[in-house]
Amino acid sequence: MFIHTDDITAYIPQRAPIVMISGILEVDGPLTRTGLHIAPDNIFVENGVLTAPGLMENIAQTAAARIGYIAKQQNTPVPLGFIGAVKDLEILELPPAGQMIETSTVIGSEVFNATMVTGKVMYEGRVMAQCEMKIFINPQL
Length: 141
Fold this sequence. Notes:
CATH topology: Thiol Ester Dehydrase, Chain A
CATH class: Alpha Beta
Order of helices and strands: EEEEHEEEE
Number of domains: 1
Shape: globular
């Protein structure tokens, strides 16, 4: 069950057709969990599965949702973030369209405007993808 009742775009800067999370499941300290219902017409679906770029964008948007959620709780504008680096990306399986995946990110460290996160995408108890990302936040936007 999602912890918000409004549109997910209130928490992330992306807009259709690039929105890659359906809602926030949990924000608890360094942990964020989101869900995505993979629509068959999703821009990143090919041959009935969510492709690797879609999985990476899903992880990045999960990290962004945490920042947006915190900003909304503090009544401040949602800042814009950029992926600076991806490390140790593993794509183990591609989840099928029409299904729900769950993605988690855990903050490893935050230094100035750079945040290191580890991300993992799960489907039916199996790891689909995982990586580390360095995300830069621009609080001025």
